[in-house]
Structure formats: structure tokens, C-alpha cells
Amino acid sequence: MTPRSERWREAAISIAAMRDLARRTLPRPVFDFADGGAEDERTLRRNEAAFDSIELLPRPLDGAATRDLSVELFGRRLSLPVLIGPTGLAGLFWPGGEAAAARAAAAAGTAYCLSHGSVCRLEDLPAGGPRWMQLFIYRERGFTEALAQRAAEAGYDALVLTTDNQLLGNRERDRRNGFRIPPRFRAVDLALMATKLAWLARMRPELPRITFGNYVRPGESADLAALAGRMASLLDPGMSWADVAWLRRLWHGPLLLKGVLHPEEAHIAVDHGIDGLIVSNHGGRQLDGAAAAIDALPAVLAAVEGRVPVLVDGGLRRGVDVVKALALGARACLIGRPQLWGLSVAGEPGVRHVLELYRSEIDRAMGLMGAASLTRLGPDLLRRREVLTPLTQS
User: FMN hydroxy acid dehydrogenase domain: from which residue to which, for each copy (predicted)?
Assistant: First the structure.
């Protein structure tokens, strides 16, 4: 008989099922903070739906009795082509959320990217596996430089410069819910809290201490509202390629650019010494109407011409989605929301379970495809399904 504390495993048979468990676990404003997108959420939906138009052409007679899911990135061999991407305030979903997810990634043999907006300080994230650090170009360039220096001193393996967050997206779910950090629940939210007692019990001692750990200055009170205001004021819509070149001179390890959708931007990035690209629209949380990441991937790959690895995030909800992205030419994929759903349900074991779901689904798909290694996945195993345009009467 499965212990009550482990019964979630029986239900968590897929990423979609894990999302449903998280929805039932979290207060609605907290769930929507992770789950929602910008404005009408067209890009959010398109990220997932775009995979439907890509069909697989398996070659089972190629034989794949065993499958190698490992990939090399920047001199590190990862056992899984799925990395955990940066998601702010993971500590809101589980106490010590960033540390729990980083341990899960290390146990799975993959990399973890810490968000600039983490609850923990970047120095406090446990080592064990490859650790990447996200940062922005801020109006206060000295703060960007300080974060990069702190990441270097803490032994981070790579920097991820995110470029699509120069203005805060219009996330209307959060506005409708009256969501703020730390959460202040309305009477209607509290009335619905009877089914969220597990989250409330574990988080109640943590809520007063939740802050943006990387933005607290020495000797300063960690007032969250003030820190949130500072973060918003630091974002710089005027950032330019000169700033990318400046950061490239500062940081001597791998430097990735995240938020690339336009092929010309990809080409310029490589000319500026960027070591890797992440094709991403910020999970549909910023510019609603932006292209789905998987749709933008082929043109970015063509522009780069194999000079640097290209990764992709956004809408990957099955191992077969990862297989499609890799067959198109991506080196690896990043996930955001799915690891937050696993974290919300069971902390570190929940994130481990999410990563193992991807591992088992990728392995099964490769076996059915006749692909013994990731290098065997290529465009020859794909075709685009034609989308018929409905006839209209004139």
C-alpha cells in the first residue's frame, strides 16, 4: 500500500497530470502566477500547440536496443537533454524551492539555471551539478557587473543574459487575482483555502521571509515591496549590442543569450562572441503575439550555421516534444513551469519525478524512432503537417 505522503506519484503519470496536482495544491493566485501568460495568452497557448504540426517519421529498423540520452554542453556531459530554466520566486512554491530544484537537477545529471529573482542568494544555491546564472542588463550597469562578479566567485558555470524582459509583461491573471509578493489573500481566496491547507501549513512560516535574495544590499532591510520596485526600475529598455559586448568582456565563461526569436539577432549575437543561444519568448509571459519558440527555431539555426549550440524553451510538455526540438537541431531544451508544478506538489522529489517523466518519455520515443543516440535525431525524421486554410464565401 502506498504511503499517503507518496500517493501523488500514482496520479503524476504525465506533466499535464502534475500540473493538475499543482493546481489543486496551490492557492489560485499563486498557481496563476506560474501558469499564466501575458494579455490574451495567445503565445502561451501557441508554444504548446505548435508542436502538433510537427510529425515524426520513425525508422524502427535502424535498431535502438539501448538509447543514449546524454549531451555535451560547454565541456560538461549531461545525462539528459532537459535543463531547468530560470523561474523567479521558486521559494514561494516550496520552502527552499531553488535549492530543492537544483538538487533534483544534479541528481538527474542535468543543469540548473538560477533566476535573478530567486528567493535564495546566488551564493547559497547548493553545488553538485552544473549551475547557470540568469541576469539582465540593468540601468545601473554596476549592478549587472556586481552580479556577474558574484556568479564568477561562486563558481557558476555559465551566465544567461535574458533580453526579453526589458519591460514587465502585462500579466492579466495576476492583475485579476490581485496577486502581489508576498501574497496577501482576499476574503474570497481565504474562503477557498480549505483545499490548500498543505501549502499554507508549509509556507506560513516562510512567507514573511520571502524576498529577492540577489537584490538585498549589505546592511539593508529585505522589504519585498521596496525590492520589487527597485527591480522594475532597474530594467532598461534602452539596452543595446554595446552592452552585450561589454558583458562579454566582463565574463570569461560561457555566455548565453536568452530570448532570441529573430534570425538576424542570432547572427549578430554569434558575431559578438555569444557562446550559446536560447530560443525563447519567455514562456508567453512578455510579448503576447510573439512567435512560438519551436516555430522560430529553424530560422535561428539556419542563421547560426552550427557555430554555437542553440537551445529552446517554451511549451515542452512531453518527451516527444523534446525529441522534435532536438530533431530540428536544438542541442537541448529548458523547462520552467513543469518543474514549478513538481516543486509545488512534493518539493525536491516532485522535481526529480518531473525530470524522470521527461527521461522515460524521451527514451521510449527514441526507441520507437530507431534512434540509439541524440545524434541520430535529425530533420529527416520529421515532416510538417499542412494546415488547411478553411474556405470562405466571397
Answer: 7-387
